Amino acid sequence: MSQDRNITGQPDPEFGAMEVSSSEPSAPIKGGLESALSKSALNKHQGKTLLLGIGIGISLAVFGIQILVPKAEEPATAQETTQTEPSGSSQTVTTARVEQTVVERTLEATGTVQAQELIPVFSEATGLKIARLLVDEGSMVQQGQLMAVLESSVLEAQLVQAQASVTQAEARVAELRAGARSEELARAREAVRSAEAGVAQAQSNYDLIAKRVESNQKLVDEGAIARDRFDELLNQKQVALTNIQQAQASREDAKARLQELSRGPRPEVISQAEAQLSQAKGQVQLIRAQLNNTRVVAPRSGQVLRRNASVGNLTSSSQELFQIVENGRLEVQFRVPETQLSQIQPGQAVEIMAENQSGINVVGRVREIEPSVNEDSRQAMVRVDLPSSEGLKPGMFLRGRIVVASTSGITVPSGAVLPQPDGSGRVFILQGDNTVQAQRVEMGELLGDNRVEILSGLQVGQEVAVKGVPYLKDGDRITVRNN
């Protein structure tokens, strides 16, 4: 009866010591180890004739491997074949064929989520207390929606005063435009007549005194009356003349007043009153605008990113009360080396994942590539539009994967390749005599379906070992089983 060979994972002298590289891809190592664990369990089940001590040794070895190396998810194999078990000891493996498939060339970058359009919200009314806040951070608001209310009692009192000034100015303008009333004209005509009568009376008094002076002049010359008496008459004559002048002045004033009332107010007087009315109305509009500004509304629809205000705070022209992300539109900004910019075009799809948060896997679109390149880093900014997602928030760190080309390439399951310290890979090709041949390969892209591109070392149609690879060496005999 044949005996199974003890699986120890001895290194092949041709390839040197087998090490696990910390760089990608790591899936082939994990897949190979998992296959080794499955094969070891199967061999232990089949080794009925092994000595008890050898069985215990194998069990301890398997137990140690399971502690040191956690199981990885078994890679999917598109094509697996089954061959008859040859005579002699062999290892049980699964195999897959080397295939010609489409390989997507990708470019990876990391970046930070930003708002496409961040809109600050200010209060136009300064020096007023915040009375109410109606939205919180994260709230969705519509354009024109009320977000905060400011104290308005002082402005309301000022509005009442301004409206009274408007009423007074309107009455003055209306009075001037209407002109003098009939009663006022009648009084003005009567004043003119009275002034003319006063002039006539003053003139009559003057004439009387003048005659008395003239008649008493001879008497003074003849010494019939005293000189003092004559001087009194001269003084009365002077007073009468002054009265005539005053009466004439009053008559001219009365005539001018009558003429002014008859013509109506002067145009410049009306213009001045109208200007005062406009000023009063402007004050009302100003206070109403200030009152309207006590209602802080959303300038655009979007999501409230930050709320920087508290109830009781005084507003100022420089104080930002809120920040709104317009329509909730976010973008991620990637920095890409200038040597790779030619591979990126606006509209290109970008697969985006969160670096430290599961459940975020979305597809964005390249919106803009900045025309300038940073002189120090030699990188340019690539802006990618993000779809609407509750998990995405400004400031998050994301990783992007951009497919820059699709070409035809040779691929195998990632579990079939053992990474080597020099960056190459190692696979085992199935031979016609149910043995395997170790082959060094050059690896390319690590694909998303647990396959890896092979740039050189393999040909389409060849069959390679998948599970159990970490324990094989060149020339080993194998048994192929279905997965």
TrEMBL record:
Domain YbhG-like alpha-helical hairpin span(s) in chain numbering: 153-293
Organism: Spirulina subsalsa FACHB-351
Residues spanning the membrane: 49-69
Family: Belongs to the membrane fusion protein (MFP) (TC 8.A.1) family.
Domain CusB-like beta-barrel per the UniProt entry, residue ranges: 332-402
Biased composition (Low complexity): 76-86
Protein name (Swiss-Prot/TrEMBL): Efflux RND transporter periplasmic adaptor subunit
Stored Pfam families: Beta-barrel_RND_2, HH_YBHG, RND-MFP_C
